[in-house]
TrEMBL record:
The chain crosses the membrane at residues 21-39, 51-70, 91-113, 154-173. This is TRAP transporter small permease protein. It comes from the Bacteria. The complex comprises the extracytoplasmic solute receptor protein and the two transmembrane proteins.
Length: 189
């Protein structure tokens, strides 16, 4: 394998390892919010924000921690046949399924970017161009989307977290694809 692929794998794996290890502690924030929700409903006036914050934290925990889970190989698999295969056969199977996952994640990322553009007040047909225009300063924000609940938080932060998570997952599965190709070729990475 070329040296740039090894550098890419080290960079992506290191980035997702650090972010994943940090995201693991998000469960404590989720527990804290749910604990406060229980206490406030029992002893005080119920808090309006706790359910939605708990949902947002769970989405962030799941999506940001996903690439680290893929890296560790702790994702769910059907081991009925897979567990008995050789490492090379597993790598061949994983390489094919990772290609399908890359397509699926690409669709999710495009949908997430479209939804995020909508949450920034864009209703046209070119959401990627709009988001790029926001970054470089040629576009302006429209009416920001809010949740239809009583608390009414802005939705763009969680949509941004989802897009970042989908992108990180794409990076991680491309790293896994390179590792699988190396195993198929009998090379060490």
């Amino acid at each position: 394998m070329p040296s740039w692929t090894k550098s890419y794998i080290r960079f992506v794996d290191g980035l997702n390892r650090r972010i994943g290890r940090f995201a693991m502690y998000g469960i404590f924030a989720l527990v804290g919010v749910l604990l406060w929700s229980s206490i406030s409903k029992t002893f005080f006036d119920p808090s309006l924000w706790t359910l939605e914050i708990a949902q947002f934290l769970m989405v962030a925990y799941y999506i940001i921690g996903g690439p680290y889970s893929i890296q560790l190989g702790s994702n769910v698999r059907m081991d009925l046949f897979y567990g008995n295969w050789s490492d090379r056969k597993k790598a061949c199977y994983d390489a094919v399924t990772v290609l399908m996952l890359i397509f699926f994640l690409g669709v999710l990322l495009y949908g997430g970017l479209s939804s995020m553009a909508y949450s920034f007040g864009y209703f046209g047909k070119e959401p990627i161009g709009f988001l790029f225009g926001l970054v470089i300063g040629t576009e302006e924000l429209g009416h920001l989307e809010r949740s239809p609940t009583a608390w009414r938080p802005y939705l763009w932060p969680i949509k941004l977290v989802m897009c970042i998570g989908f992108f990180m997952m794409l990076l991680q599965v491309s790293s896994e694809l390179i590792k699988d190709i190396a195993k198929i070729r009998g090379e060490e990475i």
